[in-house]
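Batch job 17 of 40 flagged for manual review because the log was empty.
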Amino acid sequence: MKPRTKRTLAIVGGLATLAVATGLVLNAFRSNLVFFFSPTQVAQQEAPKDRAFRIGGLVEKGSIKRDANGLTVTFVVTDTAKTVPVTYTGMLPDLFQEGKGVVAQGKLRGDGVFVAEQVLAKHDENYMPPEAADALEMAKKGQMKSLNKQLPGQPPTPGAPK
């Protein structure tokens, strides 16, 4: 073989190897990528049906129920606007409790129940994951807008836009 042919084959082989390696890395990255959704986004069907994602918000007061086996727990996650029922089998974090922030990772079943594979509780009084804090803030703003809408024949609400 001529040196020129050898060099061309080496370059083509190197490019093919690089393309395969890039494809494998991108595939692994895509399969491990997990997005965050608020309960409002899940209720609006923005969350994926066939892929794992994270849901975050507050554990609704009075919603924690444990099965007889002691490991399966159901609770409700809320962003103060919408709620999503969650079921989890396993040991919960020590700081997991009603009214506190939580982020759960798993998949949404067809019946609207989120099956968590992992549950994370906030670790102190001042911390909440930024995504969960943003979702709660947006939900509060959405509620305030709906409260500030004036009904016909009603006196104006103080602070409501005109």
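Reviewer: the log was empty due to a logging misconfiguration, but the result itself is present. The longest strand covers residues 101-108. Unflagging and moving on to job 18.
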